[in-house]
Amino acid sequence: xxxxxxxxxxxxxxSMEIIKETLGDVCFTPEEEKIVLRAxxxxxxxxxxxxxxxxxxxxxxxxxxxANGADIVTDTNMAKTGINKKKLESLGxxxxxxxxxxxVAQEAAKRDITRAxxxxxxxxxxxxxxxxxxxxxxTALLRIKELYEAGEINxxxxxxxxxxxxxxxxxxxxxxxxxxxxxxxxxxxGGSNIAAAxxxxxxxxxx
Amino acid sequence: xxxxxxxxxxxxxxSMEIIKETLGDVCFTPEEEKIVLRAxxxxxxxxxxxxxxxxxxxxxxxxxxxANGADIVTDTNMAKTGINKKKLESLGxxxxxxxxxxxVAQEAAKRDITRAxxxxxxxxxxxxxxxxxxxxxxTALLRIKELYEAGEINxxxxxxxxxxxxxxxxxxxxxxxxxxxxxxxxxxxGGSNIAAAxxxxxxxxxx
Lengths: 207, 207
Hints:
Chain A is α/β, with parallel strands linked by helices. Chain A has helices at about 10-25, 30-45, 50, 60-65, 75-80, 85-90, 100-110, 115-125, 140-150, 170-175, 190-205, and strands at about 50-55, 70-75, 95, 130-135, 155-160, 180-185. The first copy, chain A, has one domain (about 10-205): 3-Layer(aba) Sandwich (Rossmann fold).
């Protein structure tokens, strides 16, 4: 097989063309399509054209929040690493991941709940508008739902793409029953790479 | 759908059981199976049971190198974040990612090649045994092949799981034509999450 001679600066553009050609006609808005393309770009998994759901004016609401300097709270340090912080910070936002915090580990052990759930509680203390980017733990989504329904948090939106086999499908269905703006990968798939890709796609549309 | 009541400490074990049940009979060695399970665990993508190739005594060679304190060089900061550095450092190893280094950016721009290719050259300067963990750039694999054939580097092994649409399939096929110990995700799929998962699976078998 022959290596295609292509300049580094053109690789992403060519990749997106190939993904679009492979996808064919889709029924997304142009903004949603950019998000779907970037999720496929990071995974080479075309299932994301089927499973990504955009609810409650999610792209507009989350993008507006990011454009206005909202912070991001994520449940995975890999997503934190993958999110384009230069773009985010140019808008006034920061990414927080509390997963490795000692107080989170202690509280989770004491109550025998996941660290991710405790991280969502810690997010309630932030004095800024928040977008959640959940790429790992379904328990994070479940705790966000509880905190939202208890009036303790009111995020601008959620990127809800935890991955896995225990309570992942169920947690996504539960969060989808709320009126929160959300981009959810229905089913088992997702991950920190998908969470970062979805956020980055919106950042690239803004700046 | 009902949320399963499960203790945080049991989630991973239960996930692995579900993956094994879903996979059914496979023809991997027990060590290879642990790697496949962890790749599926991080992606919920069962294609990794089909596309992961273990060549030239890869698991034994790479695991032995890691057990003896080899360093890891990766082309993505997300993989660096995802690799269990506590385990790696307990064995005497470190993870290097040169992608954000200013000298790498300058050299890549000057020669109009990818930063990932320049990073592989920079790895030649390390005075330790190296395992490569490539989760993003096919050009990294191509440059490793050239450097190996020129006698400039002799890595203990490669985790070769770049993802994408331009030269990804081709670069993997080319590296598979070498005699280097390697774990490669044939086809377009892979990513930083898969690179970290494959490395971590080996670390968890060691310590």
